[in-house]
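Assemble and predict.
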Amino acid sequence: MSTPAATAPAALPLASSAPVTGKALSIGLAGLAVTAVGLLISSPSQVALSYLVGITYWTAIAIGTLLLILIHHITDASWSVVIRRQWEHWLASFKWLALLFLPLVLATLLYQKDVVWPWMNPAHVMHGHGTVETDILYQKKASFLNLPMFLGMTASFFAIWCWLSARLRQASFTQDTDGNPQWTQMNRKTSAFGIPLTALALSFAAIYWVKSLEYHWFSTMYGVWFFANCIRGALAVGVLIMLWLWKRGDYKGILNTNHLHSIGQLCFAFTVFWAYVTFSQYFLIWNANVPEETFWYNLRELNHDGSISQWKYVGFVILFGHFFVPFLYLLSYKHKVVHSKIKPIVIWILSIILIDLCYNILPALKDEHGDAQPFLSLNLLWVLSSVVGIGGICVWAYLKSFPTTKLIPIRDPRIEECITHHE
Amino acid sequence: MSHGSDQAVAAPAILSEVKPAVLPRPALVANNRSFSWITEKICGIIEEKTPRWWWVCFGVACFVASFTVAGLTYLVSTGVGVWGHRNPVNWAWDIVNFVFWIGIGHAGTLISAILCLLRQKWRTSINRAAEAMTIFAVVCAAIFPVFHVGRIWFALMPGYLFPFPNANYIWPNFRSPLEWDVFAVSTYGTVSVLFWYVGLLPDLAILRDRFFAAGNKFRSALYGFFAMGWRGSNRHWSNYEMAYLVLAGISTPLVLSVHTIVSFDFAVSLIPGWHTTIFPPYFVAGAIFSGFGMVLTLMLPLRAIYKLEDLITQYHIDCMCKITLATGTMVGYAYSMEFFIAWYSANPNESFAFINRAFGHYAWAYWIMITCNVITPQFFWFKKIRHNTALVWILSIFVNVGMWFERFVIIVTSLARDFLPSSWGYYSPSIVEIFTFFGTFGVFSVLFLLFIRFLPIMPMAELKAVTPAADPHAAPDHH
């Protein structure tokens, strides 16, 4: 292990990521700028809803990353030590995500209360109903669905995630220099309380940010659905980083086939888990056929005038794309370990998670916005620009953190087991 | 096409800086026990003269099991009216007991298969007993759906459980998850037996050879018959490993689906408190929780009686306690989410169902459930408690009790206060139900006692594989 080969390709200089870092920032800012331009073209509410897709998408991936690190520590895993370091860098995106959430808050506070969430404005006229204020269902939930609670809870979510991230990163990075095993123990303890905290925070984030867009609707499974997407996104990002670092040369001699096989197996497992959760939710609602629950799906299948909504087909895309395609594809060993084979499927998974979030967010207000058709509408452009913009900032945060530490946690107690990882 | 770095790639410079901090993993077999010690220890349990405690336990277990026999005999000879079911509670202890036992049954295979897929080597000390527990629990569970029809010959006749046409062209309702249960549980039972049996093969062959060497031809022939000609050749091991992995791969989704279908028994309905979308994963988490509770209940006394501390180490107990804590907390999350969403839904029936659970006539049952399932596992946060074996055992009993009450609370409280206040009632079990359920612990114990007397309680080869001696690359203190 500690024998440096004379002919070994040295790890690339850490600063070699600098040009990419700059590019990521430029792309991020450009994406955000395009989204801002959207305000001049589309209604602010539509742009804000598209932006909500972007911020939820990247926050979900960051939450998944945090969870994977927490699970790594609590299970004393060894195979993932190397990739854990990259996930730790990815956690640097949380503070920027918190900052990037602010436009939605400011727009709500300063511009229009119901720019995104209708229930924030008591005078908001519900499509086909009275106002929010007079809505008995809102009145019953008002102690939970109100602006101060929303702001306080959202701030708490980000505070929890940022605090846990900072603890995990500091302990891991410091261990590189002093080699003290107590940092590993500390991270294990952080994970023990961090997992329930993160689980609660992500569940309520999903309820506040996404589910409450249609506050009449309810499902106990929603937090679990969001959790499944978080983990799938983080695994996919993890694979892409592994491949990128391999291509750069950094990971040559560090990663082996079994690392990809293991992470590929997790991608497969969580594909099944996502399908399990999503199917269970759909099936139980469909089977019971109670209007106060089925309307959420009906809204996505039918337009207000009774015609078939394009969202119905998006639902099919999700059914096949989010489950059947990755499920069948990842059954193969080769597809999990060959770089050129695993790369397209994780990109596919990342794309479908985005579509899944669009499906959960955008149709909520489609009738109110008079925008029944999801495809080829301008909304799609603002969704893409938001995703690119916020994603660029996240990648930039990652790349900025990347050169600040060793490429791998050289003093981690399980690093040797990781490098020699085998079945 | 680029693979990982299995091809010869020179090591990068950073590897020269790798200097791991020292944090040894705990030994999975303590005191550096040798291969022969493991064989002697496990086989010795079977080969020794039947100890007196075993006979005493067996006698007591048979006596307790007779309560089930008596209860069922009375039921069949008299009719289902001898149970306490009355409108509106037409489902009660029968399905409560079924779900309780099937939950434990699901957990055993789930524990064994999932830990196998996750390459958790500490499973080797508990997986055999957990799998045995599964099969015996499924036997106990099956009693209730079969006998709840009263005239059990109908249960097996066409048109009731199994889908054959009969003279009246009555078919079971295929849209009912209860019918899916018939297929799911029987498939699951079959795969669980296979999974358990495949794992037993190498150990049965060891017993065959040892009994042969000891001159006990009958037992040697018996074990030899079930060992199916196992000789431990390279090909045998290779096929065995593949078969075991495939069965683990099949078992995992199967067990998830089976317990999901059990949750569907309730969740597909419109009964407040039953119809909630989180039921499937919540039931699965509950099954793992109750399963680890039962494994601790069973294994800790065995550990003490047979002095298995070197095989079921403190690390094993720690792991089981921590998983019990994790799954108990997941169950707590589900309880909280149900309660919260019942309020958030603003549906008065849903809200009432949950408030009634917590503060109504059955509040005592609800708070027993919360205490046992949510509060009790929180004690496992503390190392001191995890290291106190007697206390862990007591807490594991609480988990078992709590999981029975969970099913009771879900099923009975919702039915007792259904949509029609004029029909509300209060269910109490009859003595026949109490006898029948009490006796199933005897049935389970009889089977488990027979298991520890006649079959190796731990997989010897797998245990040896996790000793330091089995790792040719390991440093002396590495496993």
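Chain A has one domain: 5-419.
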